[in-house]
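CORE FACILITY INTAKE
Project code: CF-77B
Contact: R.S. (postdoc)
Sample description: multi-component assembly, six entities in total
Requested service: structural model of the whole complex
Turnaround: standard
Below are the sequence entries exactly as provided by the requester. Do not edit them.
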Amino acid sequence: MERRKLPRQQRAKATVDSILDAANDLIREKGFSSIGTGEIAARAGVNIASLYQYFPNRETILFSLYEEAANQGAHKLNSLAMKIVHDELETVVPKIIKLLLTHYEEHSAILLRMLHEVPELRRATRVVPFEKMIGSTIRLYLQQHPEFRIKDTPRHMFFLENLVVSNLTRYVTDPPPNVSRSEFLTHLSRVIVAYLKGSFS
Amino acid sequence: MERRKLPRQQRAKATVDSILDAANDLIREKGFSSIGTGEIAARAGVNIASLYQYFPNRETILFSLYEEAANQGAHKLNSLAMKIVHDELETVVPKIIKLLLTHYEEHSAILLRMLHEVPELRRATRVVPFEKMIGSTIRLYLQQHPEFRIKDTPRHMFFLENLVVSNLTRYVTDPPPNVSRSEFLTHLSRVIVAYLKGSFS
Amino acid sequence: MERRKLPRQQRAKATVDSILDAANDLIREKGFSSIGTGEIAARAGVNIASLYQYFPNRETILFSLYEEAANQGAHKLNSLAMKIVHDELETVVPKIIKLLLTHYEEHSAILLRMLHEVPELRRATRVVPFEKMIGSTIRLYLQQHPEFRIKDTPRHMFFLENLVVSNLTRYVTDPPPNVSRSEFLTHLSRVIVAYLKGSFS
Amino acid sequence: MERRKLPRQQRAKATVDSILDAANDLIREKGFSSIGTGEIAARAGVNIASLYQYFPNRETILFSLYEEAANQGAHKLNSLAMKIVHDELETVVPKIIKLLLTHYEEHSAILLRMLHEVPELRRATRVVPFEKMIGSTIRLYLQQHPEFRIKDTPRHMFFLENLVVSNLTRYVTDPPPNVSRSEFLTHLSRVIVAYLKGSFS
DNA sequence: TATGAATGAGGGTTCATTCAT
DNA sequence: AATGAATGAACCCTCATTCAT
């Protein structure tokens, strides 16, 4: 699951990037299971053997794609969280949710469909699902705000994480008719805030 | 996508069933993408050409499997809903949720993983996802209870359906540690009831 | 190393035979390492997938070829040996040697070059080298003729087997100029007889 | 088939040597057909392109290896032969045989397996098989000892050369159980002497 | 009807060798 | 002179599906 060798020269970096880009494009167009290494190489304008100099097998290409999108998202998420960690809850949540929605929209194929459609990836221990990263951020937030009635219990973490991830996921992959983006964001944020404030227990 | 011919004779029925059973078993063991028609036929003790006499292609087998599990679930769901439609909300919801959880647990491979891992199926118009069936039941219920502050608006339907389905789904496929089944059921039901009673708007 | 399935119908037997024949021809023409499954199938006029229905991998094809040539030779050898077992040594040996030479000549590519050039075959435990079969026959003969001064000791077996096999082998693969076939046969037989009679010990 | 350029500098000589050594090691470990140029270069700690600066193709590397082992053996053989050319036959033969056995044992992979397993080498006209070198020495010896009843006829050369080479070869590659080295050497020498003295004609 | 046989199309991967810096 | 990068050509093998008895 490791890359085979790291590109040292500029030319090689370009090759690797074009491979990754090509894979990305093809995934958006055709899904995962139907694309093959040959097709990726062809689209990238790269010899198939070159592809295999940097990626030991097909899976690793997909894995790299996911890793990149997830890490980038986690980075954005954490940056924002750091900045607004001391704001009011009603302000924080919508901002976070909006950022996540945007990121999911930009990388829906990779982040949302890939782990589902290629279950082997999930089994690859090195893959840390983006959802877990979101969960970590939520947990961190809760720990720094002991005033919430909702604590870091397994149950609440489960529901919270799911509340966030599943609604975003579904809004992107299976968008409901007649629900505008802002309407969705507002409502979801409100539900989350209500949950955090413990309107249920 | 239609079955090729309906089995009129007893023997043919048995053949079809053995194919479906074999597919079911293999799916549980190895997932979807890795199982092939030859393997299914072999496991079923049926000649590969016979298999193609009843199923025009690989997809149809999977489709039949899904259809059966979904319809059976919908049937159970509706039966229960009819019986308790006039009970109190706090009684109705946990019963429904429990039934759904049980059904999902029994058919997790088919109902939860298959549509995700085999995206072509989702595109097949004839497949009605079980989630939609759940949505319909919810909608029906809402229509018969105009006293709820939550109405049958697209937004509420979206959140409600998702609340139910995603939590059940995730509880089955990615069970949280340290959250007991009954704890989960209770909490989920409570959240749903709260949502229905409009604790958020 | 087992054949994958046995041909039951006449058609299938023909397919298998044509594969084996094609492989045989190609081996004579080009050697072993350079021929591939695709080439064999093409030459045989058979689809590559059909080939793999009867042979699980490339090696097995070569193996089958060897097995057939070796078994056929062993059979001829034993038939002859049974017939003349009670004749005089000076009569027996030339007949045996001539038979072996003829068999080697007919199957030189398979029997003489294959085991050398494809060392994996030798490691395949199921392959019984033809040379061992010859050795067995020699041993059997010695046991039935206790009057010889040469006994069935490891050392004598080693030399005898080698005397027979290596000279025949080399005569076929690397024929000496100016040594006629009959001259070779006569001389080799004479040496063997001398060795059997113990002109050395 | 020529080396591409002769190494003039010290560093280049070292590079060539490390390539040859690496190839040698790999051959002992894995055989011939399975080792590739990339592997050799990696093991030698040399860039693959550098390798191709000294060897125009894969074959040449193997060829160089053979050439070195064969020439070294021929040299040892001739040195010894010169020294003892006037000794008694019964003394000469065992010494020669022992030297050859030792040399074969030390270079069995190269001298015994390589020409067999890589038939292209044999076809390369520049390769003079070690066996031919042995044959030459035998012939030379016979010419200098006209008192032997065995003359330098094609037939006798064929048998003699084969007697020596094949027994040594087989003893090394396929050692018989329960035949000690010294027993083998003694017996083989005795047979050779007997043959030279014409105990058969 | 049921079964053995056949097949087209592709899919992942490797290797010897050459190019460009 | 030495190295990282690139590549063309294969090769082994599998699978969904159809044919023929």
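Facility notes:
- The mean pLDDT of chain B is 90.
- The radius of gyration of chain B is 19 Å.
Invoice: internal transfer
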